[in-house]
Amino acid sequence: MDVKKVGVLGCGLMGSGIAQVCATAGLAVTVLEVEQKFLDRGFAGIEKSLAKFAERPPEKGGITAQQKDAIRARLKGTTNKADLADSDIVIEAIIENVEEKKKMYASLDGVVKKDAIFASNTSSISITELLTATKRPERFVGLHFFNPVPLMKLVEVVRTIATANDVYDMAYEFAKKLGKVPVRTSDKTGFIVNRLLVPYLLDAVRAYEEGAGSIEDIDNAMKLGCGYPMGPFTLLDFVGLDTTYYITHVMYDEFKERRFASPPLLRRLVMAGWYGRKSGKGFYDYADPDNPRANQL
Ligand SMILES: NC(=O)c1ccc[n+]([C@@H]2O[C@H](COP(=O)([O-])OP(=O)(O)OC[C@H]3O[C@@H](n4cnc5c(N)ncnc54)[C@H](O)[C@@H]3O)[C@@H](O)[C@H]2O)c1
Question: From the CA atom positions of the chain, what is the Rg in Å?
C-alpha cells in the first residue's frame, strides 16, 4: 500500500508537527481535534514554523512561498471522525492518557477503512495495550516522533508481537518518506531513547542531591565533557519535570528498577508546581528566559 492520505489525531505540540511534516512530504493530511479552537491554535503553530522554513535557504531545508502555500493546502482540520474514513494511516498524538487513547481507537476502528494502519506517538504507554481497543492488532504500530517534529530527524518505529511484518515495513518506509531517520524497536516501555535517557537524567538529579556538583557545573560538565548539546538540568526543564515524573512512574512500574524511580527532589519540584521552562521555574528560573539562573535547591 502506498500511503497518500494521513489522518492525525490531536493538533497539540506533536500532532501539529506530525501533520506539518506529512504535508511537507506531499501527503494529504486531515487532523482531528475535539474543538475548533485547538485546531486554530495548532494551525497557527504550523503557520509560524512554515514561515521560518520559508526564511531558510533551500540547502538548509528552506521552502519557497509557493511550496509553503501548497503544504498549507494539503492540510485540513476537522472535529468529525468520519472525515478520517479513507486515511491510509492514522497517527494518534492525543493526550498521554491510556483510557482516552483506547476510547479514541475503539471509536475509529469501525470508521476508518479496514486496511489502514493505526499508529501511536505515545512516549510511554504500551502499544500492545492500545491495540487491544481495536479489531486490527496486526495493523498497529508505534511511530514515536521527537519534539520539535519538523526539526528532529529520529522516529522510533515500534513493533508489537501482533504487528504483521508487511505493516511494520510499511511504517518504517513511511517514516523514511517523511525525511526522517527511522530506527527499529520493540514495545518495551521507553523504547530506545527514553530507556537510556531517563535513567541518565534521574542520575543527574541524584548526583546533585548527593553533592557531586552544582546545577550549572553538572550541566557544563556534560556539555563540555561529553559534547552533549545541553546539560541534563537544562534538558529536564525543557522536557517538563511533570512529564518526566509521569514517565518515571510508567517505567518503574514496568521494570521495577531503581534507576527508573523518581529521586525525591524531582517529586518535590513537581509538587511545588515547578515544571521547568513552561511554568517559569524548575531547576532554573526563567524570569529572564534568555538568561536562566540556576535555583538553589
Ligand atoms: N511533548 C513531547 O515532547 C512528546 C514527544 C514524543 C511523544 N509525545 C507524545 O505525543 C502525544 C501528544 O503529546 P503533546 O505533547 O502533543 O500533547 P498536547 O497536550 O500538546 O496535545 C494533545 C492534543 O490532543 C488533543 N486531544 C485530546 N483528546 C482528544 C481527542 N479525544 N480527540 C482529538 N484530540 C484530542 C488535545 O486537545 C490537544 O490539543 C502524547 O502521547 C505524548 O506522550 C510527546
Answer: 20
Residue 156: active-site member:
yes
Which domains are seen in the chain, by residue range? 5-186 (3.40.50.720), 195-294 (1.10.1040.10)
For ligand 1, say whether the CB of 203 is within 6 Å of any of its atoms: no
Mutate to test the pocket of ligand 1, among 14, 18, 97 (most ligand atoms within 8 A of CB): 14
Secondary element (H or E) of residue 193: helix 193-209
Report which secondary-structure segment, H or E, holds 186: strand 181-186
Closest CA to 83 of 31, 135, 19: 31
Q: 261: Cβ–Cβ under 8 A, 6 or more apart, which residues?
A: 202, 248, 252
What's the pLDDT tens digit per position in 185-225? Answer: 999 999 999 999 999 999 999 999 999 999 999 999 999 99
Angstrom distance (rounded) from CA 129 to CA 10: 20
pTM of the entire predicted model: 0.93
137-167 pLDDT, tens digit per residue, is 999 999 999 999 999 999 999 999 999 999 9
Indicate if 123 belongs to the active site. Answer: yes
